[in-house]
């Protein structure tokens, strides 16, 4: 890790937390990405779909506008279709079953000392760690 | 209209934060999970940084009944674990580790991830759309833990 990585991590983290604070204090909503997306596509969030759609529009468009400032951004995402499909399905099922992901359970849950948020975070980080251990170091597929 | 404006502002700031923090870089995310390899602690700084303003916001919210735009402040968190929470988090973590994407960064980087990003998002949406129907199907065939919540 380059030394400036953690500084940018901290700055970006403060921005993410600021976004969650704004969404909570102005809109009265918990900023959970999987819940906002999931409620929009499975129909359970029909009552406030415009708010969800506006949030997602900002989430997609603003980074797209900022990328040119960096010249280019390499996200180093795999192009292995099977891995992408498997991961997408796991993330989709898992986050909706657990009612939250890194933003909802992680950022918003831990900050209010929610037992569910903290437990979810422990389990998804542990599962992610085991997955990287097996897929990278034992099987060599990632 | 004002609700949409602040929602878009929050979404935009969230996306900008994900870009600035480096969390759209899937190898950095996998690096955080790679405890037995070249471990990358950046994600801990991102998470720590995000929790600070959010913890303050929860304290402010606790003293109010309504948000700035008049919606009730979300009720206190449920302090109860259930099998769905744990099983779901394990499935999510496995997918997160496989390619280094979770829902927020998948959307924030959707314009730069190319076809790979589209494939991931389509698979994620397909799972999200089918889960309620799967739950109903299992609920009607017999009681299993993961159909009981919600």
List the topology elements.
The complex is a heterodimer of chains A (about 140) and B (about 150).
Chain A: H1 3-27, H2 33-41, H3 49-66, H4 81-97, H5 102-111, H6 115-138
Helix pairs in contact in A: 2-3, 5-6
Chain B: H1 2-21, H2 26-33, H3 42-62, H4 83-99, H5 103-108, H6 114-141
Short characterization:
The complex is a heterodimer of chains A (142) and B (150). With 142 residues, chain A is mostly helical.
- Average pLDDT rating of chain B: 92
Q: What structural category do the secondary elements of chain B indicate?
A: mainly alpha
Structural class of chain A: mainly alpha
Largest two-chain interface: A-B, 113 and 117 residues
The helix-strand sequence of chain B is HHHHHH
Strand content of chain B: under 5%
Mean of pLDDT of chain A:
96
Overall description:
With 142 residues, chain A is mainly α. Chain A has a domain at 77-142. Chain A contains six helices and no strands. Chain A starts with a helix and ends with a helix. The model of chain A has no long low-confidence stretch (mean pLDDT 96). With 150 residues, chain B is mainly alpha-helical. Chain B folds into two domains: 1-77, no CATH class; 78-150, no CATH class. Helix content of chain B is 67%, strand content 0%. Chain B has helices at residues 2-21, 26-33, 42-62, 83-99, 103-108, 114-141. The longest helix of chain B has 28 residues, at 114-141. Residues 146-150 of chain B have low confidence and may be disordered. Chains A and B meet through helix 1, helix 2, helix 3, helix 4 and helix 5 of A and helix 1, helix 2, helix 3, helix 4 and helix 5 of B.
């Amino acid at each position: 890790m380059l030394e400036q990585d953690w500084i940018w991590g901290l700055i970006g983290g403060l921005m993410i937390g600021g976004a969650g604070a704004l969404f909570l204090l102005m809109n009265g909503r918990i900023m959970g990405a999987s819940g906002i997306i999931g409620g929009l596509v499975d129909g359970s969030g029909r009552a406030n779909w415009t708010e969800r759609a506006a949030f997602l529009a900002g989430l997609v468009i603003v980074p797209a506008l900022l990328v040119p400032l960096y010249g280019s951004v390499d996200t180093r995402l795999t192009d292995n279709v099977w891995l992408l499909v498997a991961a997408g399905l796991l993330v989709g099922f898992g986050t909706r079953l657990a009612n939250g992901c890194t933003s909802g359970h992680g950022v918003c849950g831990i900050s209010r000392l929610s037992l569910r948020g903290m437990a979810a975070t422990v389990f998804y980080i542990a599962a992610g760690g085991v997955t990287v251990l097996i897929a990278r170091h034992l099987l060599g597929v990632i | 209209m004002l609700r949409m404006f602040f929602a878009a502002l929050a979404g935009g700031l969230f996306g900008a934060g994900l870009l600035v923090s480096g969390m759209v870089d899937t190898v950095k995310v996998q690096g955080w999970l790679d405890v037995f390899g070249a471990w990358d602690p950046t994600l801990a700084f991102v998470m720590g940084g995000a929790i600070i303003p959010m913890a303050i916001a929860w304290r402010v919210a606790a003293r109010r009944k309504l948000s700035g735009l008049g919606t009730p402040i979300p009720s206190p968190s449920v302090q109860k674990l259930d099998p769905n929470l744990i099983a779901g988090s394990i499935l999510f973590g496995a997918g997160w580790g496989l390619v280094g994407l979770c829902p927020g960064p998948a959307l924030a980087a959707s314009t730069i991830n190319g076809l790979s990003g589209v494939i991931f998002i389509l698979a994620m949406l397909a799972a999200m759309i089918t889960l309620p129907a799967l739950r109903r199907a299992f609920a009607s065939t017999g009681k299993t833990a993961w159909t009981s919540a919600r």
